[in-house]
Design goal:
0% strand; mainly alpha; homodimer
């Protein structure tokens, strides 16, 4: 339901930084292949480093532990989408409803990109389901995603309180979509529906009383 | 800002079950004391079992691992609050807004109860902050709390889709409050404000178009 997104292009970077990124990417790809072949517990950091043709020290320069590399792709995608969005000339959201709406395209683009290769997406979740600690780390990463979304809103001039709640609600829409999307290809659509359900509820009131959200908050 | 809550009383249970609960509680208390004295990594399951005067086998009958015991109190509180609420004669919420409002008192009661002993609450978060795996497990427990809230709504006859989104949004309010409540005693108030901010936005529209939320969802 979303149009195709343009490739995410990293800004021009010096050679040394490009080399760093290539090494990092090799580690991610090597880990992907090894986890698929041998399972998470059947692969050591040394295995990954060897296949990526880097030293163990280099691995740990990029990733705190073996679990981190599992989430690198999605984390990087969100960071790049948020960075691209923070370049856009968008005015500060004045209400929670506006702030949530500003996060909608970010979350939908993330959903579209993480499921662009549905099989890889499915493998990712199978890996998480196979391992309790990975499942927990995934939950932590989702919380950290809320931090990235909040920072984008704050960058646009949103107040901290509004940004915090809007980011958590945007993540709630993402989490809902993840649980409803049996087929990964439906993830963007499910996320859009979740935002729609909140938006349908909030929009007419938000239009007529923009700005009242925070002022009224304590008066119930 | 919330009135005092009545003590949560477990229903009458047979002796063998009471003994089980007492053993479980002794394990939780022993772990609490030992983590406070020696830190999470300085305490083994054997240490906890010994102090609680149970065997290691008994520990693992109640808790999957050492991390689980850290979250037992909050998990149990939520389960008891949700159980008490599921006894109440409340009709099925028809919209996401109604469903979120039905979860408000559950989340606020949880906030009030977990902070009833502010020092213990602060110690809990200090323990989480000290340990990355605990931090991740906490994130997982928060996701599981959404499952408990969703089940309560479904029990009341709410549709799965609405229950799922409402539960995730209720957790978003809780997460927002946790991050804003520098002083634990303000947690219930911060959570109420988060619900208010969404409610202020949603209420007037929800009143005039109850039931439209799902029907309109796909039409933007």
């Amino acid at each position: 339901m979303e149009g195709p997104y343009a490739p995410l292009v990293a800004p021009d970077v010096p050679l040394v930084e490009r080399k760093r990124r290539q090494a990092r990417q090799r580690i991610i790809d090597a880990a992907d292949e090894l986890f698929l072949a041998n399972g998470f517990d059947g692969v050591s950091v040394s295995d990954i480093a060897e296949r990526a043709e880097v030293g163990r020290m280099t691995f740990f320069r990029y990733f705190g532990d073996k679990q981190e590399v599992v989430f690198a792709k999605q984390e990087e995608l969100l960071a790049m989408i948020a960075a691209a969005q923070s370049e856009a000339a968008v005015s500060a959201p004045r209400t929670v409803a506006e702030a949530i709406e500003q996060l909608r395209p970010v979350v939908l683009e993330l959903c579209a990109r993480v499921t662009a290769d549905p099989e890889s997406f499915t493998r990712h979740y199978e890996l998480l389901a196979s391992h309790r600690e990975l499942h927990a780390r995934d939950a932590l990463k989702t919380q950290q995603a809320a931090g990235t979304l909040r920072a984008l809103l704050v960058h646009r001039g949103c107040t901290e309180d509004v940004a915090l709640l809007a980011a958590e609600v945007a993540v709630a829409c993402y989490q809902t979509a993840r649980q409803l999307a049996g087929d990964p290809r439906t993830l963007p659509e499910k996320a859009a529906t979740a935002f729609d359900q909140l938006h349908t509820l909030t929009s007419s009131n938000a239009r007529t009383s923009a700005g009242s959200a925070r002022g009224d908050a304590g008066n119930r």
